[in-house]
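Before the break, one more example. Copy the sequence into your notebook; we will annotate it together after we see the structure.
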Amino acid sequence: MLSYPIRYHKSVLRTVSALVLTTLLQAQGQLENNGKPMRVPFECTEADSQAAGLSCSEEEPCPVYLELASVESVGNKIFLTGNLHTPTTTLFSILLVTEDAGKTWSEAHPRIRLSGLDQIQFVDFQNGWIAGASLQGTPRDPFLLITTDGGKTWHQRPIYDESRVAVIERYWFDTRENGVLLMDARLEKNRHELYETRTGGESWSIQQASADPIRFPRNREPGASGWRTRADAATHSYHLEKSEAERWHNVASFLVSVGACKQ
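Here is what the structure looks like once it is written out:
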């Protein structure tokens, strides 16, 4: 029997190569940016539904959505914070990172159940902070995720020693040690609280408490970093955009809908 070499068209080879790369990236927990909105992987387990108090079924599933809250770039890394939620309940926090200008994405920290992540700031290439809180019902137990190695690892540090109904309004670090933080505790104590740290966020001391709004002693205008996230109704996705030459350019996009709970 004669055998002949099989020749494939270059476009076929490129398609096969792309499929192989996508499969490998998914196996490694990475998302590949091919120009279309990416879907963050999510599989709702029975434990997830029970922890969130969901009543979902095949007939009436609970849709799960991605929400992106803040963006920060440091060196060659871009971080995105947010959460995964149903129409009624927050399921998990999420922290996405890219190190190749948005071509591939992975999760920089394990998802925290029933919590969300918001503002993120790096003061240099190594030291960064992310504001978070438990979002089961009323926001409570605010915390910071802290990194000292450029986002390779993060550790969670609560603001309070005891459980409290409160949420971080704003914070700002001038150096890796010194920062200020404004807390909204109106639902519990009907007041705003201003704190200061000289330990990089590991501990905080209260400076002021008032039923009236407290002026935040630091200021940075939204969008000053040159990055933003924008919800796009036409594609049902979040767009990550960078400001260049007085215009916003799309770097990556993520689908809002990521799955459903059907327990």
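The chain has one domain: 10-261. Confidence is low (pLDDT under 50) at residues 1-28. Try to locate both features in your own notes.
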